[in-house]
Amino acid sequence: MVSRNRKAKPQPQPPNSSDASPQPNTESPGTTDEKDKENLPKVAKKSLALAYICWALGGIAGLHHFYLGRLYQGLVWWTTGGGFYFGFVRDFWRLKHYVAEANFEVSFVRDIISQIRYNKKPEFSSARFIGMISVGMFYGYLAQFAVPENCFGLNLHEHKFVWLIVVPLAIGFGNYLVGNIGFHEVAFKWCWAGACIPSVLLPINPDITSYAGLFSTVISYWHRDFRRNLSKKKNTLSTYFMVIFVIILNGYLWYSMLYHNVSVTTVEGEKYYFRDLVKPYFEKKDAFEIFEMLRKDAFKVWQEMRSQVKSVHILEDTEAYKVLGLDWGASDDEITSRYRQLAKKYHPDKLRAQRENVLDAAKSLELEREYNQKMIEISQAYDVLISKKGRHAKAAAAAGPQSEEGDSRIEL
């Protein structure tokens, strides 16, 4: 007979969710909780085949990332040529993972939730770390070279504003973009603060950009975290506006760098700005014709523009020989002898003798202008030929036989 006072056996109670340690999801790969489905954002399913087509057609410009909604990575690919081409090649093996992430597939969601539960911070990724350094430095150098050397009489490259504001902001933004790709996130303040440290501690010099890129990456990488709210929509309207703004700004920075600072220096030591060299080449062509030339054979366009560098000083020499009435390649003795003959012919004493025979005052004044103009042209032509020959001889002696070809170098 069972006693009525016998206590019932206590049943085990489920542990409190706040005290229990997180347990990995043990469901089968093909199922998921209805509650989890409701919490995930509703997205249009992306096709792996279409992603590969976008990669093949415009992967260098990040077309496949824009298609998958990975705007930050697409923006990085657009501005760096597919992550300096290495990222474009790497994406061939990563596209399947990117599509799973874009579609919030069950296997991907479980993996990211597991990482968030068991790791305080994202695991170290050498690809992301190197990418942050490379993109940050690239943006920093682009901003540095885009600032005009001389503006309103100031050398901006020696001004604190460039090294404390412009360059750190560019480096910080590059690190911010790479750091926030996927389900990782980092605050912009850490990216910018790290880039400012070398500018404050070190004297102004071009190497600061490299140090700033490294400091910004280390500090921002230390403060990175997961994007823990999976249901939060990442690509908002402001994100799209930001992407469009950065694309336009990137184009302007390239234009500013090429227009203001890029120059070509010949072996004779003469400096020609890039804007002056390409203007004759492009001035009679519209934007569509220029785009078609670059698309068909960009290397040929570069070769023709490079030949324009040589033609600049060749045209000057040709005109100088013409003024002196000499053939191309005349010797120094011939140039000097011809200069002396013309200088005597148009000497002021000869002018006075001519003016005595002219009674009309207007004709006398016109004759004086003609003699003065001739003397100026003769002197300039002589200076051009003699000075260039001397510089070319010194350059040839210093650089060896290859300088005879009239090669040139590009400077920033």
Can you walk me through this structure?
The protein has 412 residues and is mainly α. The strands form three sheets. The protein has a three-stranded antiparallel beta sheet. Strands 1-2 form a two-stranded antiparallel ribbon. The protein is elongated and about 105 Å long. The chain starts with 33 loop residues before the first helix and ends with a strand.
Task: Put the structure in a nutshell.
With 412 residues, the chain is mainly alpha-helical. It contains 16 helices and seven strands. The chain is elongated.
Residues in β-strands, percent: under 5%
Mean pLDDT: 77
Catalogue the unreliable spans.
1-10, 12-33, 402-408
Give the N-to-C terminal Cα separation.
Answer: 102 Å
Which radius of gyration do the C-alpha atoms yield? 35 Å
Helical amount: 55-70%
Shape assignment? elongated
